[in-house]
Amino acid sequence: MAAIPDVYRLNDPKSFAYSTARSRWPKIIVQSKQDVLAHLKDSDDPQLAKQGEIIVKGIELLLQELKEGASIRSFTDSEVALIPSLQSYNDVLLTLKEKPTWLSGPWLFTECYLYRLLDIIVKSQSKWVNFDIFENLKRETFKSSKLGIIELAIRYKKLSKELKVSTPIESEKLSILFEEFIDISLWGNATDLSLLANATLEDIQSRQGKEAREKSAKNIIDNDLPEAWSRLLSVPFEERRIDFVLDNAGFEFYTDLVLSLFLLDAKLVKNVVFHCKTRPWMVSDTMVKDYKLFLEDMRNTDWFPDHRNELDYFVDSIEHYHNTKQFQLVDSEFWTSALDYWNLKPSETKYGGAELYKYFQDSTLVIVKGDLNYRKLTGDRQWPKTTPFVDAIDQLATSNIHILALRTCKADVCVGLPDGLEEKLIENWKNQGNEVGELWCSSGKWAVISYSSGHFTTN
Ligand code: F6P
Ligand code: MG
Description:
Elements: H1 16-42, H2 46-68, H3 77-82, H4 87-95, H5 107-123, H6 135-143, H7 146-165, H8 171-188, H9 201-206, H10 210-216, E1 220-223, H11 225-234, E2 241-245, H12 251-265, E3 271-276, H13 288-299, H14 308-323, E4 327-331, H15 353-360, E5 365-369, H16 371-378, E6 403-408, H17 421-431, E7 447-452
Parallel strand pairs: 1-7, 2-3, 2-5, 3-4, 5-6
Antiparallel strand pairs: 6-7
Helix pairs in contact: 1-2, 6-13, 7-12, 7-14, 8-12, 12-14
The structure holds 6-O-phosphono-beta-D-fructofuranose and magnesium ion.
């Protein structure tokens, strides 16, 4: 087997990491500071105000250090005492040969560290422990996704009624529907807030809806969906459970729910479990509490005055499955630890990896959503793009975990491409007037659907 390649780094001008650290992160940090200030202004609690000022100072210092390319510090003992999983970052820092800086460190590690640092700056203040620094942004963007939300609610209600009356539905038709709803959930990942930091309402809406999806079908550059479909059907119905390792709240979460409702209504699966983050993460990621807010927002007749019938039908359906426990939400510290997903293994007993490994042994399919999760699956390493997916996920390839990654490409790492395709994509991106052809891979315009059965053998 070939040597494992190095990770992507923040000082490589051909990597999306380069502009991420220099331009995207500062914007995200400034935006979060503004949200703290807004929360502060809304409150008349003097202690909260005083603590809020400390948070603002912490964020300003972080911004300054980032711009200067300062070295990253370990988390202090008192920070680790407050949130023990921060120790995972200190563990990794000890293993790195060079002390990482904000402008030259390993991209994946440094990006995860950034969100944990922001989190501890906030959580170190007792009055702010439940404050989600990105909540405003998540909800506001969901509100702007009105057209896409309504279009899907109409589609879902019509189909759900059909599924309830016509029994049984031929497997061929179900497989076409499966493809359609996977597609919805896949392209739902294109509207991620950390990437669309400057997006207009039109930008967001242009990425949602049937028309946008149809245009993008040819942009799925690795597609293992038929294998995932076979896997689904191979498990007896009573044992069929799908796990989603979730990505973003808002519109993407809604598309994941649409896919789940289809699977449950069509009796393709018995249970669905959503795995959420335990803290604000990568701006838009989903926490368990975001589900409650989602229901509230969907019911908000000021935000969504039209098509109430379809929207209420959607909410009632998901609540029904939540009440029967066929739909559940859980969370784990593992997802926001410093560890990549090669650590989903029995020996990772410190941060939740072993527990999740065990839990996924009974899963029919673990659908891993989005870009950051894909980077953690592949170690965010500089794999040749023709590397088979199973070769890039280390021991997960033999873990007995059936993984289906649904990801629009928003970073440099990408595997599973046929010979010659990468060269064409680079050329094509340059021909569109972009200076660095390699950056096609972080434009969010292409996507992969990659499967591993967890039973890889070389024979
Ligand atoms: O830098 C690329 C990026 O914005 C990272 O922050 C992260 O990998 C990702 O894209 C966020 O996207 P997603 O929500 O799909 O994980
Ligand atoms: Mg995300």
